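User: Quick one: structure for sequence A, then sequence B.

Assistant: Sequence A:
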Amino acid sequence: MGESPAHYPRVVQSKVMKQIIGSLVSLILSAAAATAQPEVMAWGNLTGLRVDGHLLELATSICVAQPQLTRVSCTGRERQQNSYKRSGKVETVTVEMRAPRHLRDALGSGWKMSATETVEDTGPGTAKLDLQFTSPEAAEIGGAFLAIELPASVFSSGSVELIAADPPQPSKTLLAPGAAEQNEYVRATAKGARFTARDRTVDVMFDAPALVLVRDDRRKGNYNLQVLIQVIDGKTTVGQTAQRSFAFKVTAPLDKRPVEIVLDPSRPGQMFDGLGGNFRLQNSRTDPQVIDYTLENMRVAWGRVEMPWSLWHADEATDPLASARTGKLNAKVEQSMVMAQRLARKGMPVMVSAWHPPAWAVLGAEDPQQQRGAPRGRPLNPEKMARIKNSITDYLLFLKERYGVEAVMFSFNESDIGIDVRQTPREHAEMIKVFGAWFAVKGLATKLALGDTSDAYPVEFIKPAMHDPEALKFIGAVDFHSWRGCTDEILAQWRDAARELNVPLIVAEGSTDAAAHRYPQIFQEQSFALYEINLYLRILAVAQPKSILQWQLTADYSVLTGGGIFNDNGPLRPTRRFWNLKQLASTPPRSFWLPVACDKQPNLTCAAFGDIAKGIYTVHVVNNGTERIATMTGFPAGVNDLRVWVTNAERGMQELERVTVSGGKAQVLLPATSYVTVTGQLLQPPR
């Protein structure tokens, strides 16, 4: 399983010295990043401060309020345009915010605001945050703020104390839940504030007196406490700027308790084929090296490629299959088909998805000035459906007859939100029936993916097809994408849908932040890598998918760096994300999901598998906290020792010393903020 940097491909070892020097510089910066205490999201929100790996939670955001604070709009994932960079211990985020569209429509006007935030690691449990707002135009607003959100579960039994308050405030104001739907606890000018709960203290000091508001707002279903610290007071003028500095300190006990992990091999569930990948070709200069490296150094179990539909059949009047058979094939189409062939030669099932449709196949014209919040994509033209199904079927037939690849499934990518074909749930069900029946008539075994949704939340999108007997005949898998995360309850609904239909569940695009390609330095951050693999283990533990297909195993959202990717001209080399994926991909083929009881702590996630035929048992653990000891039990008798691999800021899938199993128990060290994989094998495989 393990692989040392000495075994990088030969192309890496042959780079010129100046590239190696560039690599060393990058590694130094990475080392600095690895020790960073503040955890900053790329959109400017601070999630907390880490001490010895333990995250002392502190949620901040950048906010602009409507007059009288009737509504407060704050930064969040994919809510605004933003950029991210790190220099040593300083992280810088810039954001471009604007009033939500429904407010602009209601008021006939809106606001725009730029903000630059820098966060500096100033020591264990402390950080300095500088925030500057710039208003490019005059706007009627209620102010611009730094917001802090305090979890009600912790602080509703606590208190707040303002420092040098004007007007003077009580020494402590209790934060107990109020009787109203909206409660305001404190409104005063101060130089700082201290928030105290039973096991936590948050101190924040300002560089100059500022208005502080502490409130909750249950009208919006938010029971947390919101702290607003004003940077801009009221309406703005053209080009107005304002800035403020904040010093944070969080004090709380560190959770170093040992944990217990109990495996149950007696109740195997769905089969996990292994990690898969997306191979949508977008960058001819940098994609090949990433694809080569990944396929040479990682077991990839499933593949997904693009059907460049608009290039395959640009002119409705042509016969694309006849043209292709005479050698008239668009170069990008050929590259995509060759990519599918390469994956199939490695034994992978290959999914084919279409993004851009030809203009003749859809209704309406493409809007190059897509307004935020407006419907995306265009629906298929129902009057052209016969031509459409022939066009797509011909593509799949040519892929089969010329390149030897029979796609296991076809889908329109994220048609629930229109990237780029837009469908209603009913249209999605009709498409499955029409295409599936025609594929069968033409001798294709290709099925349709049910869903292929933009994230896990639109479960309702698949319901019409689930209840249509004709559509059920042609569904090959239930399929969602993992962008923006998901709850365990939502994951359970996808699992249950797949079980009801008795088809596999596929996560056809795996990762966490769909906008991350705009600020690619975030890919180097410990937090990004840790949250990604933590999400995958949660999905595996709850939903039991057949595969999670990483977006992508090309230079797009790359798990490698160097080689000119994202302007890094050092040698091509793996990132922590690569090692995380390789470690997960090392799960033996034909392993079944196994129940595993993982201590109910928010900073521990587990998933387990068993290749029962060969007697190999695998437990994956993400420790999103301090170093701790895990006592593992439940391995079958005959497993006498365990192999252990770890990926963290210092190690890339490094194998540690074997751990002895004694009396049915083994003790495994879980390093701080790490991903650990443990395997045990029966001395005599079952017969």
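Sequence B:
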Amino acid sequence: MHPVTCGLEVHQQLDTRKLFCSCRSQLVEGQGARFVRRLRPTQSELGEIDRAALAQAERGMRFTYQAPPDVSCLVEADEEPPHAADAEAVQAALIVSALLGCQVMDEVHFMRKIVIDGSNTSGFQRTALVAVDGALEVNGRRIGIASLCLEEDAARKVDAKDREVTYRLDRLGIPLIEIATAPDMHDPEEVREVAQRLGSILRSTRMVKRGLGTIREDLNISVPGGARVEIKGVQDLGLLPTYVRTEMERQHALIEIKRLLRERGATPVPPAVRDVTALLRDSRSKVLRSALTKGGKALCAPLPLFAGTLRSADGRLRLGAEMAQHARSRGVAGIFHSDELPGYGITAEEVQALRAELRLGERDAFVLCADMADRAEPALLAALARANQALVGVPEETRDPLPDGTSVYSRPLPGAGRMYPETDVPPILIEPERLAGIRAALPELPEARIARLVGEYAINEQQARQLVRDGYDELFEEVGRGKGMAAVAARTFLSTYPELQKEGVDLEALSDAKVREAFAALSAGRFAKEALPSVLREMARGADVEGAMAALGLEAMDQGDAVHILDAIIAERAEFVREKGEGAVGPLMGVAMKELRGKVDGKAAADLLRERVRVFLEG
């Protein structure tokens, strides 16, 4: 039995017009017109209401939308029917399907997927199944491709406060290819390798967007005795193994909690709460005082036989954190539970008073929430419902990734009840001749591209493989064509970039256009290659190449000026040069480069220094 089973869903934005209109697919800063909506769940064609949609509706959210011109229109506002699906986006989906060896549908039909978290103005996302049953090979293992879909991206969240969320419609409708693998991965590192491989294949089409946020991964993870949990929207490939490991640890802890509760004979907790405001009215806890001063209430509920599972002494079992995440989905800041009290200003005497009021024994726990009554009670009931789930093990759910590699509860895992047919978009007939033409002219696959880079640019295979894996191969070819530029470009993307990132430089600010600009100046002899990391650092901070060079004082130096500087260095150390002869070149090179770095190429500086030393010795 495998220690973990993982599936992966990769969502890649296409570099085309929007899927159902002719608006540009580009993110902007302008807000444009504004309008407000509330969304409600609807039944699927089977007459079911999806549990995830129902949970979202219970939050009672209000949604404000910003509609910038040129990148959104009446289609995004759901005031006009969708246009026919973008032909270029459909073509891209068919090309990727062929690259993955998938079986393409005879007809592509769009469906509506109910989504009422506000990210779609219509309350649903349009998605179409394009192909099934493909595969890719990673490290000699076959990883199945269950499905490939073409869908529209969601609106972009720009603000959230209380029960209102603001979205911008620039991202809504950008075409996405969604690739879902089979649950064939059983090692955290393998998940990352599969994601990198799929990213390379997608980029090989030259029809996808690049940069932060243009590709996202959803992880489906389960362990023996656990359940399928989806971590949705991971953007950092490097963290994929960490998310898998932390979810494995979380599920194992929940399985242990279930075992403990069953051993103790715990039974489901009734959905009842008790008002304990009178007991805590004089509490020194800032949270309690703040809530009660505003007219709120302190509500409490017993958890018989749950002591030690809400937060164990070693910190491994943390059911209380799970309950708090469910409570926050009802609009409160959090909850208190007895495994963490006394603390947070709540005294031991107040804890004893609460235990006496609830008639709790040593192995019993309690949970406490203070807020306005219309929030505190639903939040506490949500926490109790989560506690009851612990009796049956790991619940199926969707979770949001956090930057540290952990995740938090988002909503229940959606089911088949959220899908129903899209009646406004006609089906697309896929003729066999069209597929034959695509297969006859497929783009270069990563393996062939690696071999060609090695042959054409005289870099080693490891460098070529890493360039392709990290997605720098296309830009590398653009900037590495000039004389001597291939080695510089490879070093830049594979060594300089990681070094800049360690320094905290925002590499996302280094657009392809900026990199091309920097290399064009380098090729023109405007500065020496040794200065390129410094130039890129300045450009990442917002400067153009001219501004970066000015800030660094890098205007290229002519040979006459360089000779003058080198002669001065040699004259200052004349005795040393006479003693060492041409052996003085090495020690003097460090001094020379302090004066010439970024203004004269390193090799040229070394050759010129050697020449000036000879002239000095002969004179």
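The CA atoms of residues 295 and 372 lie 7 Å apart. The chain is about 40% helix and 20% strand.

User: Thanks, that's what I needed.
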